[in-house]
Structures are given as structure tokens and as C-alpha cells.
Write a structure and sequence with these properties.
Length: 282
């Protein structure tokens, strides 16, 4: 590989003293919120969505053009062709939305329907969107050195199924722990330790959501990184206890942990359609 420090060094230059001073400050690592919207599409309309995106998203695009709403700093749009067997849809769009104030999004699904992509929404949308927010969000960590508008980042959303039995029990325990530890010293210590891993990997944004689906529990894992190859190499080489502990937990938890640990790009069913960040994103 090329010098793996190049992307991280460039980001540090962009972030300036801010990135150097608060890399492991828990408040800096969690200064925004994020949620997911899974929007079923009517049959045969994914091509229409692609055509509309071609005319909307350019180098100077703003997230508000794609998803009208308050304080959006990151909007990533993915698609998955074909819905679950027998659901009668033409696949789904998945929005990953990072916002400055989650409380201002009182009805995210309704706001998403106002996107120019869905005009008129009745013809394109098969059903209301499913919202994954505070109750489903397991991890949301930011690299304080991330640039506002990264140059050609790797952006991936992958769903990893949780193994039946022990894995499902751990998932339920985890769901309870999310609320129990949120805002406490336990959460702050875990987030601070995770900051070291983000540095090593040049991972800009990482968010995990618990997915309680009919086919079983899973994790929806969002990653925005300078270079996914760097992420994989750094994770494998790291001696950080968070990285090594997470590797062990993933082995217990997932049906096929190798699919994620080897290369999440190869494991995903979700295609990235658009990734837009605000110029003032921190």
C-alpha cells in the first residue's frame, strides 16, 4: 500500500489545532447525533431516483438540497435492490443522517418525504419509513480531525446478522445497556478509548444501530473513512484494547464475523448513491 499516514496527516492539517487538542475528548467524539431512515420504494422507481440524483448532487452540493431539515451536516443515501421476499416493494432507500440537534427532528420520516427525490411521494414510496434513532443507536463516534468535506471517502453501510441464541441474548442485553450507560462515565471512557482506534484507522465517522427485524437481530454499521483498506490494516495491526476486545465480542455476536472483519465493502447489500457533507461540518 501507499503511505497509510497520508490521509490522516492531510486531515490533521485540515482540522488544525482542534484535531490535535481534542482527539480523545469524549465531548468532541460525540458532538452530533445520527439516525437512519429505511424507506421502502414502490416497484420500478429506483431508476427514477437515480436520474434525479444525477441532477442534484455535485461537488458543491449541500445536504439540505437532498434532505430538507434543520442542522444536517452529513447525508448519505444508500439503496438496496428488491425488498424482502413477498413484501411487494421495489427495494429500499436508506438515509444516514447526521445532525447537530436530534431533538429538532420530531418526525424524521415525514421530513424525508419532502426530499425532491420523492416528488410526488405517493407514486414513489411504498410505505412509511422506519426510523432508527436514540433507542437503536449503539455507537456514534466522530474523529475530531475529520475534514468537513473529505476527498473521495469510502462510505459503507453493512447489516450484520446476530447469531441466534447467545448472540441474540447479548443483543438484548446491549439494547438495555444503551439507555443505562448513556451520559455516564462508563460511556465517556469507552468513547475516549475508541478515539485512539479512529486515529489509527483514519475513520472519520462510525455509527452502529441495533436492528430488530422479523428475520432476527442485527447491527446496521455505518462507516465513513479516508480509505477502507487502511481501516482494515490498522484494525488488524492495532494493540489497542478496545480493538482487541471488540474483535472478541464480534466473534461471539455475529453469524459471520469474517464478512465484516475481512472487508465490509464485500459484505454489504447496500449501494452508496450519494454522500453529501456541509462545508461547516466539524
Amino acid at each position: 500500500m501507499d503511505d497509510t499516514g497520508t490521509a490522516a496527516n492531510r486531515a490533521a492539517d485540515d482540522g488544525g489545532a482542534r484535531g490535535a487538542s481534542d482527539t480523545h475528548d469524549p465531548a468532541a467524539l460525540t458532538r452530533t447525533s445520527a439516525f437512519l431512515l429505511r424507506q421502502p420504494l414502490a416497484p420500478g422507481v429506483l431508476a427514477t431516483v437515480r436520474e434525479r440524483l444525477d441532477g442534484m448532487v455535485g461537488d458543491d452540493a449541500d445536504p439540505g438540497w437532498l434532505l430538507p431539515g434543520p442542522g444536517v451536516v452529513t447525508a448519505s443515501l444508500f439503496c438496496r435492490e428488491g425488498g424482502p421476499a413477498g413484501d411487494g416493494t421495489g427495494g429500499e432507500l436508506v438515509w444516514y443522517v447526521e445532525v447537530e440537534d436530534e431533538a429538532s427532528w420530531t418526525d424524521p420520516a415525514a421530513l424525508a418525504r419532502r426530499s425532491p427525490l420523492f416528488d410526488p411521494p405517493g407514486r414513489l414510496l411504498a410505505a412509511p419509513a422506519s426510523h432508527y434513532g436514540r433507542d437503536e443507536r449503539v455507537v456514534h463516534a466522530l474523529n475530531p480531525a475529520r475534514p468537513p468535506r473529505p476527498e473521495s471517502p469510502d462510505v459503507v453501510l453493512v447489516r450484520v446478522g446476530i447469531a441466534p441464541g447467545l448472540g441474540t441474548w447479548l443483543a438484548r442485553l446491549l439494547a438495555g445497556a444503551i439507555g443505562l450507560f448513556r451520559g455516564t462515565a462508563v460511556e465517556r471512557r469507552l468513547v475516549a478509548a475508541s478515539g485512539e482506534v479512529l486515529d489509527e484507522e483514519a475513520m472519520w465517522t462510525e455509527t452502529l444501530f441495533l436492528d430488530r427485524a422479523a428475520e432476527g437481530y442485527g447491527l446496521l454499521w455505518y462507516m465513513e473513512a479516508a480509505d477502507m483498506d487502511r481501516v482494515i490494516d490498522a484494525y488488524e495491526a492495532s494493540d489497542n484494547p478496545v480493538a482487541r476486545w471488540s474483535e472478541r465480542v464480534l466473534g461471539w455476536l455475529f453469524e459471520d464475523p469474517s464478512a465484516l472483519l475481512d472487508d465490509p465493502r464485500a459484505a454489504t447489500e447496500h449501494e452508496l448513491l450519494a454522500h453529501v457533507t456541509a462545508p461547516e461540518r466539524r
